[in-house]
């Protein structure tokens, strides 16, 4: 048995896609266990950029099994478009490469309408969702009004559940958001068709996953978003609608906690976040703009510019504790080349008192004053480094400072967007 969980440790966009793509070459099964197409993983292979939103990153490897597990919410139209796009580019040539859990929930047209309608009404108080219907779909899951992937193969079940849902949703859509009524018959017809198109992939994913782990397969669980966007442990309410921490791997994919061996957290060498919410180390200056430009910090899903700031180890240590990290994958080290000195946030001050953890209240997070440690930067390019010793001394010192302050080994260092621009110090498998 060899299992590895990859999670984000900040506000998402840490470079999980590249890390997963690199490690997938050593895995046999890749599993997405939460979220939906509100996440995008950017992969760069042979100079070609590929962005996946729903399908796990392992799809680029023809012999790897990819699983969309029960904890995800699936927009069938997006999934089918993604499948078609990948096939046109020479990937995903066999249906057997992808399994979709029959227990995963389905994003319906009314979920997207409600998502967009709410954001419009909230105005300046909006959360900053992607408008993909993720939150309303998880709401229906919790209220037991949801539609699951397996229901798309059952005309009687789908018809009944859609009609019941739209009795409530259309009232909200028409009278609260002033949007057009959604026709139940059209939705039923369209989603039954989606079910037939997805039929080759729909299975009991938990049972298959259990079998593969028992057989000794190397399994990689791929998280979306980041720990500070977790619905319970993030900067609420500016969070996503699911649990993104490693503990949700078990619920979100149907495996036992005793089957999880390693958890690696992806840490960007600086901090970014998209949308509203507290960001203590944000750089609203020329340096922040420089990092955004060099790091190409624009959302893979929305294209929105990311807010940029110094590395915040209060945030990272929050993630180390919650996820039980056994290793760190440090990304985008190359973006900091030429920045001198480099600052690392090690604690906060709130109302004159030292704080070493992320406050639960967003208003308190907005008021904290970050406290920094300065380290020397480097001017040498990193993109050709292939071992830890190849890095300039100051870059090595930066890595070792992170290891010391988090108590966690940095097992992987990314020095560029391509697969080969990586330093793997310890293999997880």
From TrEMBL:
InterPro entries: Adenylosuccin_syn_GTP-bd (IPR018220), Adenylosuccin_syn_Lys_AS (IPR033128), Adenylosuccinate_synth_dom1 (IPR042109), Adenylosuccinate_synth_dom2 (IPR042110), Adenylosuccinate_synth_dom3 (IPR042111), Adenylosuccinate_synthetase (IPR001114), P-loop_NTPase (IPR027417). It is an enzyme of class 6 (ligase). The keyword ATP-binding does not apply. Binds 1 Mg(2+) ion per subunit. It comes from Desulfomonile tiedjei (strain ATCC 49306 / DSM 6799 / DCB-1). This is Adenylosuccinate synthetase. GO terms for molecular function: adenylosuccinate synthase activity; GTP binding; magnesium ion binding. Pfam families: Adenylsucc_synt.
